[in-house]
Write a structure and sequence with these properties.
The longest helix is centred in the last third of the chain and has 24 residues. The chain has 13 helices and 21 strands. The strands form 6 sheets. Strands 2-1-3-4-5-6 form a 6-stranded parallel beta sheet, with helices on both faces. It has a 5-stranded mixed beta barrel with strand order 17-18-19-21-20. It is α/β, with parallel strands linked by helices.
């Protein structure tokens, strides 16, 4: 058996792409290894959303160069969004790389590997293929109770800062019957939580079906206990999807809804297609209709031309919404995007100062909101162990909060009712209850 190692950077889409690649490699005679020194094939599955992503990849390639010297038969592959972005430049900067493959070419991995071994190199950057040419059974699913299902690929938006439409291509959608068949197969294999994935997942449509109808049909499949979907664009979060979150029992009361800025002026410059007021209106509707709903978001600070007043409006957005989690970043220019050529770029020191302010504000909000949950009971789905080994088990509520419980808790059921005993800024601690109902 040959051995392979996949290193994954990025979002859930990348994680699931790695599962698909691992699923292809098994029937080709490969088995996974965690030791790069033992690998016959190393795949770097990359993300290019942040600045210097390519430099991080080339830095890692430099570290792997010695392995290639020791083992000339080792195949090194760069996959994912950096591969799509850099293309042939990867071979020029790192001539010991054998394979470059964009994210829409995973189904060709076996042929590309054969070509790389035969001819010394292989590259495939097509962006117009079907999003899921692989059967659901082809993916080597990770451990845990959650399974990812890709419902669409690509993005038709033109946000001024974003490179995803270039690296992932235009939107393509799977037929609903294929999605439902995959959900049935996964629940039959023991996955009670399904997460639908797409770069702009709530833009999904195929024929007369759209995301809300897929959620409703999936809920009727035996074995489905929880449904999630990510990532959503505020402009496509329509009343049908929000009502499905209200009405469908298995749809979790958590939504990741990137705001990016609280300033209408900056939102226009970003070409986001919505206003602060429209965003808040959707938050308000969900808060009134979905009990206990939690919100997470993405924030970019320091976008070109962002004034102190613009930044203050973003801070007030955090305070007005009181998000349960925020992923905040200083703006970073991406090659080929509109924003990369905009004037009034902010100094790095200003971006970092604003980022620290956002993170401090959010830490205060999260600590307060989590503290309000002490004494309440929730059903959690055990999904792994906490960061420090030996300190207990870990699960998630439907509202996506991490709950740590003592390691001596024993249960055959991955679903467990717990009482919250302590609150932290980024997680909760709880104790298992027997015969209790979650609040």
């Amino acid at each position: 058996m040959r051995r392979f190692l996949i290193e994954t950077w990025g979002c859930q889409m990348n994680v699931h792409d790695s599962e698909k690649m691992a699923g292809i490699l098994g029937p080709l005679g490969y088995e996974p290894t965690a030791d790069a020194g033992l690998a016959d094939l190393i795949l770097l599955n990359t993300c290019s959303v942040r600045e210097k992503a390519a430099e991080k990849v080339f830095s890692r390639l430099g570290q792997l160069r010695g392995l290639k010297t020791l083992n000339p038969e080792l195949v090194i592959a760069v996959c994912g969004c950096v591969a799509q972005q850099e293309g042939e430049a990867i071979f020029r900067r790192a001539p010991y790389v054998d394979l470059v493959m964009g994210p829409r070419n995973i189904s060709r991995l076996g042929n590309l590997l054969e070509e790389a071994r035969r001819e010394g190199r292989s590259i495939s950057l097509a962006r117009d293929e079907d999003p899921i040419p692989l059967p659901a059974s082809a993916a080597a699913r990770g451990a845990g109770p959650r399974a990812y299902v890709t419902v669409m690929e690509g993005c038709n938006k033109s946000c001024a800062y974003c490179i995803v439409p270039f690296t992932r291509g235009r939107e393509v959608y799977r037929p609903a019957e294929e999605i439902l068949a995959e959900v049935r197969e996964l629940t039959a294999r023991g996955y009670p939580e399904i997460e639908f994935l797409g770069q702009n997942v709530n833009a999904y449509h195929h024929g007369t079906d759209e995301l809300s109808s897929v959620l409703r049909m999936s809920d009727r499949i035996e074995g489905v206990r929880r449904l999630r979907f990510t990532t959503s664009h505020p402009g496509h979060l329509d009343r049908r999807i929000m009502d499905a979150m209200r009405d469908v029992p298995s749809v979790c009361n958590h939504l990741h809804l990137p705001a990016q800025s609280g300033s209408n002026r900056i939102l226009r410059l970003m070409k986001r297609g919505y206003t602060r007021e429209r965003y808040l209106g959707k938050i308000d509707y969900l808060r009134r209709n979905v009990p206990g709903i939690a919100f997470s978001t993405d924030i970019i600070v320091g976008f070109p031309g962002e004034s102190e007043e613009d930044f203050t409006k973003t801070v007030t957005l955090l305070r007005d919404v009181e998000f349960d989690q925020v992923y905040a970043f200083g703006y970073s220019a991406r090659p080929g995007t509109v924003a990369a050529d905009m004037p009034q770029a902010l100094p790095e020191v200003v971006k970092q100062e604003r980022l620290r302010s956002i993170l401090a504000t959010q830490e205060e909000i999260q600590t307060r909101r989590n503290s309000a949950l002490v004494g309440r009971t929730f059903e959690i789905l055990l999904d792994g162990r906490p960061a420090k080994e030996g300190t207990g088990l870990r699960g998630r509520t439907t509202c996506n909060r991490i709950v740590h419980i003592p390691s001596d808790a024993t249960t055959r059921d991955p679903f467990l009712t717990v009482r919250i005993t302590r609150a932290h800024a980024h997680s909760l601690s709880g104790e298992p209850l027997l015969g209790s109902r979650a609040a």
